[in-house]
Amino acid sequence: MKKILLASAATALISGAAAADEIKVGLMLGFTGPAESYAPPMAGGARAAVKEISESGKFLGGKTINLVEGDSTCADAAIATSVAERFVTAEGVSGIIGALCSGATTAALQNVAIPNGMVMISPSATSPALTTIEDNGLFFRATPSDARQGEVMADILLENGVDTVAVTYTNNDYGKGLSDAFEAAYTANGGTVTINASHEDGKGDYSAEVGALASAGGDRLVVVGYGDQGGKGIIQAALDTGAFDLFHLPDAMVGSATEANFGSDLDGTLGQVPGTDAPGGDLYTPIGEANGFDATAPFSPESYDAASILLLAMQAANSNDPAVYKMKMFDVANAPGEQIFPGELAKALEILANGGEIDFVGASALELIEPGEASGAYRVIKTIKGKQETIAYR
Predict the structure, then answer these.
(1) Exposed, middle or buried, 90 (CB in 10 Å: 0-12/13-18/19+)?
(2) pLDDT value at position 32?
(3) Which of 44, 184, 248, 251, by CA, is between 20 and 30 Å from 21?
């Protein structure tokens, strides 16, 4: 019996030593649900950054990183909360990357992260409401607020001579926030919104919604929805009935799913998605190729960048305590310091370990502004021969 107890004690010591050399970080994305086609390349970006840092041997004196993952679904606040609770209470993570959608992010942030003093950084949650949450300096995002996207979308349409539009939005935080921001910017600059109506995801028939939109009229239909769900259904019903043949698509409608679903039927359709022509994008592409994911997919660059600055802030603080390293997030993301691009995370770790400063540019030309979100650059998209091509940057 004594030998068994000694062996158990030895095992516990070994396990404790292993745990001391490992830091856990949570990754919560909507692997299922209305935006599920976005999750694989986003996860690929976050995993690549974690792998690059962990395998360098330079993170916090040689610690490795264990990325634990969970499906927040995008559509169920209770599930998002449950995933975040598991990360914090059962897994003992030091930070959370995610969620993908604004509603899931808000639920996890308010119900779990803030009460537990946990840092969260989302690569893709864009609701303007997240800007004003009292988060105790714990929440960051590597993508701009939809307050900015609404302005960009209005400018693109008006510059292309489109001065009347109908708007439909998915009935959640993301859809409502972006549609309101767009309408405010568009009407302030002379545009007319004939109708701004919500739609529900998961329906089999959107003919009634499209009928109301068509009755209101407009030169184009702005679809603030998800390419895997209601947004897809709205476009299909509009095309089937001839109600609209030209659309405008914001970020959650841009991507391979929309291309595959509609191809050249959307030729001439415009849209926008966060993105930049900075050199980091070209340097990030081979990282995706080496790790088996599409590095050009929406929010994949932002996912790499979100994971990177979370871990680099820990390195700068020499601590994985969220209360300590949250103070370093702006420092590592912004000037002054040596610019850091994709593939250079080991160099960044070494600079920080030696007391130096870095300016993480990353794959998306990341620049944090108060209260902790990206300043905002966008790719302007046009569907040409069935492909969503980048035609400009803003």
Answers:
(1) exposed
(2) 95
(3) 44
